[in-house]
Write a structure and sequence with these properties.
about 375 residues, mainly alpha, globular
Length: about 375
């Protein structure tokens, strides 16, 4: 039978010199005995999958609220897709797939109900109490809010996974700002960052077309779509729109990954990256697109913002979502006895509002809608 030490030895042999090895981890906040057959990063991945916050992602908005259809992506399916893209890229660079997968599966744990709209609402409501940002909330969940172990709060994840989770946080809570001389996170974390964007944009195109918010004439305004459709038509000239949609989105994902790998490999050679800490101390991020691909990806993002995220149907749902969360938050703040007994109600104003924020941000879309009805609809049963 294989042991943890055997896997660690295999990593030292098979993985690239600049990959993060599990045996070289900076460890955990609370010291634990090593597992007999799982590396520390495999253990982190498993803890994330078994967490309550991960399960709740099933009913948290990507773009469409859960009741708008079973087909559309949620935060859970998005996280799984990011993990798949990240693992594929990491394997091609001989990076640590287990570390990348753990980061990818945890990267959206802190998202509140109703996606980025929910984040904006909670940030506004928490303006005088520290604000709200989903990456920082992800860190708060895995370090404090998950309660599954008797010896510590949170999941007690490794330093490297925490480093990857809080990719956008620029405060003292971010582990990699505590490391002298470092500028960037591990290459695995950088890969996850781009895998997130690749999955997000390509799959929102898919959902946008399926929902009818976008049509074929509109998406042909985007260079990435036109180029990949042109390549597809060389081999398949009579595909229906549904099959064409699947294949063009597939082509866009493959194109972006291919260009990402090319540019990243060039930078690895340019800066003579030989170990994991070289990645962290490099003059610029090692992972990324070339200039032309970056511009095309920006065009796609802008297209989605202008034509999908600002669509009347999406805006109407965002308007309702803002109303739901604002009124729920204010009700709890003005009448604390409406909160469950498990939510702390003591402390100063900032501490109390943070407890309310933690509770609301942990809600799924459907739970938040149900709670709104219970609070403000007289004939709704509690």
């Amino acid at each position: 039978m294989i042991k943890r030490q055997d896997i660690e030895k295999l990593e030292n042999t098979v993985l690239a010199p600049y990959a993060m090895k599990s045996g070289a981890s900076r460890g955990r906040q609370h010291q634990e005995k090593d597992h007999s057959y799982r590396t520390c990063f495999q253990r982190d991945r498993d803890r994330i999958i078994h967490s309550s916050a991960f399960r709740r992602l099933e009913y948290k908005t990507q773009v469409f609220v859960y009741h708008e259809g079973d087909y559309y992506r949620t935060r859970l399916t998005h996280s799984i897709e990011v993990a798949q893209i990240s693992r594929s890229i990491c394997k091609s660079f001989r990076l640590n797939e287990d570390l990348a997968e753990a980061i990818a599966l945890a990267h959206d744990l802190g998202h509140p109900p109703f996606g980025h709209t929910g984040q904006g609402v909670l940030n506004k409501l928490m303006k005088g109490s520290g604000g709200f940002e989903h990456n920082r909330q992800s860190l708060r969940i895995v370090k404090l809010l998950e309660k599954r172990y008797p010896d510590f709060k949170g999941l007690n994840l490794t330093w490297e996974v925490l480093e990857g989770i809080c990719k956008h946080a620029t405060d003292e809570e971010n582990p990699y700002f505590q490391m002298e001389g470092r500028r960037f996170p591990s290459l695995e974390a950088q890969v996850d960052d781009y895998a997130d964007g690749i999955a997000y944009n390509a799959h929102d195109l898919d959902d946008g077309l399926t929902s009818g918010l976008l049509d074929m004439a509109q998406v042909r305004q985007v260079a990435l779509w036109r180029e990949n459709e042109k390549e597809l038509d060389k081999n398949y000239s009579n595909l229906d729109d549904k099959m064409k949609k699947y294949q063009v989105v597939r082509g866009i994902i493959n194109h972006l990954i291919t260009e990402f790998r090319k540019t990243t490999f060039e930078k690895l050679n340019k800066y003579e990256i030989e170990k994991a800490d070289d990645v962290r101390k490099a003059p610029e991020r090692i992972a990324g697109f070339g200039k032309e691909t970056e511009e095309k990806n920006k065009e796609l993002k802008k297209f989605l913002y202008d034509n999908m995220y600002r669509h009347r149907r999406v805006q109407r749902m965002e308007f309702k979502s803002e109303n739901y969360l604002t009124r729920i938050f204010e009700a709890y703040r003005n009448k604390p006895e409406l909160l469950p007994e498990t939510v702390p109600k003591n402390g100063n104003k900032e501490e109390f509002e943070r407890c309310i924020c933690d509770y609301i941000s942990g809600m799924t879309d459907r739970y938040a809608i149900g709670e709104y009805k219970k609070l403000f609809t007289p004939d709704e049963k509690d």
